[in-house]
Specification:
heterodimer; A: globular; B: mainly beta; 11 strands
């Protein structure tokens, strides 16, 4: 069964500082990987996704993530955080062995606080 | 505009009073799903549907029902709500093929007293 671990429940960074949110997954083959962001009172918005090819994936809002098979990780990064990035971030894994869209398994989320 | 809509957005009800949360998408997606979000637990899948008349249980289906009579609609039914079903509920949809992202609705905050 697939699973996702986000080890950091809460992270605080200063505006302008760099950010890295950690995500580790468990899956028997190459997974589909996603990062979603949830702003307060909002639904989930996709930041980026990985399913094959280049292991460094660019997303919206200046975010990127790197798939590292050897570490079973898909960490999210941003070089310079803006106050508007304060939100909750979810990593998710989807099964790739069915050839069709399938359920996503989500991590428990990391809440990002940005100080001015 | 491509979107997933849910109604109502907020609902307070009492134990045992049947309720339905509606979900509709306008993207002609085959796959639809319901999740509940609870603090510290992330999102957990309740039910999903691969297409019309095809539904299956997710990780936490107890106390819920769904139906998929039309492609665009996927209502979530709580026949006898209990306080432990107080949660934030999200509907999502995606295309049937490949690793397509799931599009999420705005959420329904349900309180059962």
């Amino acid at each position: 069964a697939q699973s996702v671990t986000q080890p950091d429940i809460h992270i605080t960074v200063s505006e302008g500082a760099s950010l890295e949110l950690r995500c580790n997954y468990s899956y028997g083959a190459t997974p589909y990987l996603f990062w979603y962001v949830q702003s307060p009172g909002q639904g989930l918005q996709l930041l980026l996704k990985y399913f094959s090819g280049d292991t460094l994936v660019q997303g919206i809002k200046g975010f990127e993530a790197e798939f590292k098979r050897s570490q079973s990780s898909f960490n999210l990064r941003k070089p310079s955080v803006h106050w508007s990035d304060a939100a909750e971030y979810f990593c998710a894994v989807g099964a790739s062995n069915t050839g069709t869209a399938s359920k996503l398994t989500f991590g428990t989320g990391t809440r990002l606080q940005v100080t001015l | 505009e491509a979107q997933v809509t849910q109604n109502p957005r907020y609902l307070i009800t009492v134990t045992g009073k049947k309720l339905t949360v509606t979900c509709s998408q306008n993207m002609n997606h085959e796959y639809m799903s319901w999740y509940r979000q609870d603090p510290g637990l992330g999102l957990r899948q309740i039910y999903y549907s691969m297409n019309v008349e095809v539904t299956d249980k997710g990780d936490v289906p107890e106390g819920y029902k769904v139906s998929r009579k039309e492609k665009r609609n996927f209502p979530l039914i709580l026949e006898s709500p209990s306080p432990n079903q107080t949660s934030l509920y999200f509907c999502a949809s995606s295309s049937h093929r490949g690793p397509n992202e799931q599009y999420f609705g705005p959420g329904t905050r349900l309180t059962v007293t």
